[in-house]
Amino acid sequence: MKKLGKWLYLILFVGYFAVFYIMQNASIYGLIYPFAIGMMFALVWAEQKVWLVCPAFILSAIAFECSFESVIIAIVACVMVALPYYVHVMVKRRIKKWELGIYCLLAQTASIAFQAVAGVHPAVIVVGALVCVLFMYSSIHIFEPILIRGFAYKLTSLEIICGGIILVVLSNGFAGVDIYGFSVLKVFVAFLLLTITYTTKASNACMVAGILGLGSMLGNNNPVFIAPFVLWALGISCFKTKQRILPFLAIIVVDLILGFVCGIYYSYGILEIAPVLVGSGIFLFLPSKFYNAIATLLAFNGDRLASKNFLNRSRESLERQISSLSQVFCEMDLVFRKLIKKNLSVDEVKEMLFDEIKNDVCKNCPEKGHCHRTFASDTKATMEELISISMERGKITVLDIPSYLSSRCNKVNGLISHINTLTSQYKNYSSLVSNIDNSKLLVSDQLNGFSQILKNLANETKANMSFDTARENKIVDELAMNNILCTDAVVYEKDNHTYMTSLIVRDEDVDRPKIPQVVGRICGCKMSVIENYPSTRAGLVCLNLSTAPKYDCVFGLSSCNKAGSSISGDCHSVIRLDNNRFLFALCDGMGSGEKASQKSETTISLIENFYKAGFDNEIILSSVNRLLNLERDDVFSTIDVCVVDLKNGIADFVKMGSPPSVVRGEDNINMIGGSSLPVGVLQEAKASTKKIVLTEKDMIILCSDGISDSFASDNEFKDFILTIKTANPQEFADKILERALAGNNGYAVDDMTCMVIKIFQT
């Protein structure tokens, strides 16, 4: 491994030397040579090893021009790279880009001094220094995605432009490198045009060919290579296939035609065709893995229509499966409802028990015929009355037997015992059947709820996602302008009013406030971050944004326990159901202390989880009621729920046995009452529901009966709320609790809880 490391460093050193030597040859009309220093600074910024870069730069300067001035210029430049770099490493602070620009200017002091002594025009000196800094920044923009991010993500538009600038300078420098008539420039151009054509759109090769021809012209003030390069690109483009042999042959044939038939070159022989053969041969024999990486890097922000269409087709398939699953749950719901066995009516029960008593008690009685024939109607009415009394009170006694029956019946004690036994057995049986039916209804409700959730999910999945490629590209570019690296962006419309955006950004950029600002400006609406999670690539995070809702809310809570009780029977919940909805819930366990607290906590926990799962109000309250009814512990809870939709400002109130809620506007007040029993009292209890349209600055007040009962009437409660002037929901809740305690001389006769929610526009 150590030997491999040494060879790797040697290869890197040779590579740096080659790049610097080419940059030393690059100039603007042979007057300004500003590119090598800028390239060195850019490589150091891109986390390349300083102890390799600096020696390679000095050696390239000597190889280009072995003179005292050249060595001094190189040494000063390297000192101004290495010294700030190691100082910043010692203080553990990364060099900022504007600081790097200053260091780059200082690195040119020796070059500027020698140019001034040589009598170079000051304007030329200033232009050269500025071009050096600008080229450094251009190189940084292309080295960041290649050397730091790697080849896994496409380039942005700005990075592609910077890459074009580097190509101009590279072709400029290659034009100055001539080995005994062998053109290194043609080797580079032939390989690059073949690679560009093979990995991207064929039309891109013509643009790159023009750029490379422009660079060679700036170097030697001669446009001789522009036409051949463009014609090479056209020839290659005509034979763009997956087989690399065809473009390889095409460029050679085109160059032979240009040289021998058209006579476009000054002279044409083996030295002129050899560079094309070498560059094409390198293209032909490099592995496919290399070109796959280049294709990803040079995606040129394409539409990625194939992947997007595949996503929509997958959504359609998923919608069909979810719809089928929804139908399955719906059918199961119907089956369970058919299994429910309802209890007999009161008259049917009396008839059944009367027959049972007649057969068991009166079977062998000698007076049977007399009682059940002569006085049949009176006997039956009397028996049914005794059965009713036994079912209501739990038993009958001898005092309940009418005198006319006890005077002629010699089996009164047996009759009393038998009626009490039968009614007790029937009540137990009835309770068992009721619980079984209740459980079946509970399961049935859940199946129906699952069916509705899946149906809603299917409807949401059914619509094709409408992607916006133009906005995606603009977001990536503008974030790059703000020094925020975004490797990919997806923008689509969830519905007519909601944009969804998914970005891949660096860890350190996740909390940048500029991200939602830029995305919102491009999408034409206010955007907010809804979630972030690690991507599949280390150091990068997936950031999801959505159109921000019209409203937002804050809340305040004030409470106290019943005097003498260490545990409150009141329990509250505040959760965000999704990006647009908030759930506020208040449960009051009947009584106070540990039992009431446990009941209210159980109730609130069930409500939270049902709402988070996506069930609707009716199924949630019905299911919670049935579940708590099964406990039969005579400890009940009131429920006060308010679900606020921040997107459209609508509040849904759901109440079971709770005191009235209040919506306080700027100059009006609205009370939302409920008449239903607490949860768990009856199996078939219905919740009271109401929908209210909210406006900005509205206050919603939810309170337990410990608060409401401290006021003489609802009107007194309303009048007091209108007197509160504070806009702070916490202060609002505190004032209500203070007034409730004052109404009881500072004594909490019950658990007291008050929740105040304020709505405001974002």
List keywords for this structure.
762 residues, alpha+beta, five-stranded antiparallel β-sheet, 15% strand
What's the layout of helices and strands?
Blueprint: H1 2-25, H2 35-45, H3 50-64, H4 68-91, H5 97-107, H6 109-117, H7 122-149, H8 157-175, E1 178-179, E2 182-183, H9 184-199, H10 202-220, H11 226-237, H12 245-261, H13 270-285, H14 288-297, H15 305-338, H16 346-360, H17 368-374, H18 376-393, H19 403-408, H20 412-462, E3 466-467, H21 469-481, E4 486-495, E5 498-506, H22 514-523, E6 527-534, E7 540-547, E8 551-560, E9 570-576, E10 581-589, H23 594-613, H24 617-631, E11 637-645, E12 650-656, E13 661-664, E14 669-672, E15 688-693, E16 699-703, H25 705-708, H26 714-723, H27 729-742, E17 752-761
Antiparallel strand pairs: 1-2, 3-4, 4-5, 5-7, 6-7, 8-17, 9-10, 10-11, 11-12, 12-15, 13-14, 13-16, 16-17
Helix pairs in contact: 1-2, 1-3, 1-8, 2-3, 2-4, 2-7, 3-4, 4-5, 4-6, 5-7, 7-8, 8-9, 8-10, 9-10, 9-11, 9-13, 10-11, 11-12, 12-13, 15-20, 16-18, 16-20, 17-18, 18-20, 20-24, 21-22, 23-24
